[in-house]
DNA sequence: CGGCATCTTAACGCCGCCTTAACAAGCCCG
DNA sequence: CGGGCTTGTTAAGGCGGCGTTAAGATGCCG
């Protein structure tokens, strides 16, 4: 379920509006890239591959309609036009050139956010959506999206705590995780002294995922410090 | 290959606005179906399979938001909301329920036509999921458009709540759905703690759709976490 | 107003998971 | 060489989640 925060490209010259949108998007789990000119915007669109583009029509170097046209020559990334021009013919022109939505300034933050969600929803329905983010190491396979674990093709049954512990380890595969970190992440802050829990569940995990549980090859002990999940 | 003129479904009670839109669409190679109530609109949406839906929020029998919600249970046909309500929270609510666009009355004909073109453009990019969205797994068949469920060819009768629960599970087949997610989607945000509702209805569903209800093969329990509908 | 379908609430036994305890084995240190 | 610490392993108890049943409340239809 944990895909990275959507990347929003904002092409807008007025610093005031930039600050406004930065604040609006900041609290809502979006990553933001800013461009002050059409030229820079086109470059960022190509370079960063954003999930949605917010485009001001009144740019200093090139007209926003032209930017829309150029973007649509090679990408279908959703474009939401933000413009002070409220004339109908402006909206029609932008939409027919390939923009997906058109908001007239001034607009409300909540409406903008809702329309961004619509744009992202559209994009996510497009074909070519990769199967799932799946961790594979050796004969072990962990599908985070479906919350399923396989060993040698066989599905395993893990209890909730076992699964949370495995996920914590796998997500930082290769890195060393201290007892504190693991207890904090799996059981919560009130349990960071109960290292005993760790031993029990580490052992249960090894029973289920290790070919030879007595001689661990994936789930390694770092004596005195913590545990580490072996990366490929 | 000339495809037929796009079919537009207009759900709107005011005769005045109907006449206006009839005239607007008339000259532009669209076919138009009209419905004056929510009930009729839902029926037409299922029966005529329109390419885009224009929906007024102020219907006499049911709120337009509820219509949006019900449509989105089984179809992704673009919905453009036409409303006299211009408040931001109305827009956000409609868009988050699955509407694709929101126009506040009064609006210009040209803008509406442009936004219809955007909606059709989006739809044409979708993969060819032409016919009724029907889920089939094993001997179970769920027809979302007709709101009908079959097991081994026999039609089943499900209560409204049972049906909504099944739809929620089937639409994310393979994925694990937490208690919270299911309660949220089927009963609403005020019920996310009433996990015993789930147990009751899960059991009733199993009685109806499982060959051997005591040994579930489609509707699986993930202890401590939620439920999962088995994908093929 | 009565009857039916559906939703809601209550109650209970069972199984599985978490928790706790106890002990063996390995390692560092004096 | 021995004591104390950390780690691994096994077993048992209690609690909560889950499935199941049934009765009461609610709402809709004629």
Key terms:
22% strand; 40% helix; DNA-binding; 4-stranded antiparallel sheet; alpha/beta; 8 helices; 232 residues; homodimer
What's the overall average pLDDT of chain A, rounded?
Answer: 91
Number of helices of chain A: 8
Biggest chain pair interface: A-B, 28 and 30 residues
Strand content of chain A is 15-25%
Task: Describe the structure in brief.
2 copies of one chain form a homodimer. With 232 residues, chain A is of the alpha/beta class.
Description:
The structure is a homodimer of 232-residue chains. By secondary structure, chain A is of the alpha/beta class. Chain A is built from 8 helices and 12 strands. Chain A has helices at residues 15-26, 38-48, 64-71, 88-96, 109-125, 160-171, 179-186, 195-209; strands at 7-11, 31-35, 52-56, 79-83, 101-104, 134-137, 140-143, 148-151, 154-156, 176-178, 219-222, 226-229. In chain A, strands 2-1-3-4-5 form a 5-stranded parallel beta sheet, sandwiched between helices. In chain A, strands 6-7-8-9 form a 4-stranded antiparallel beta sheet, with helices on one face. Chain A has a 3-stranded antiparallel beta sheet with strand order 10-12-11. In chain A, helix 6 (160-171) packs across helix 8 (195-209). Chain B binds a DNA duplex (30 and 30 nucleotides) through helix 8.
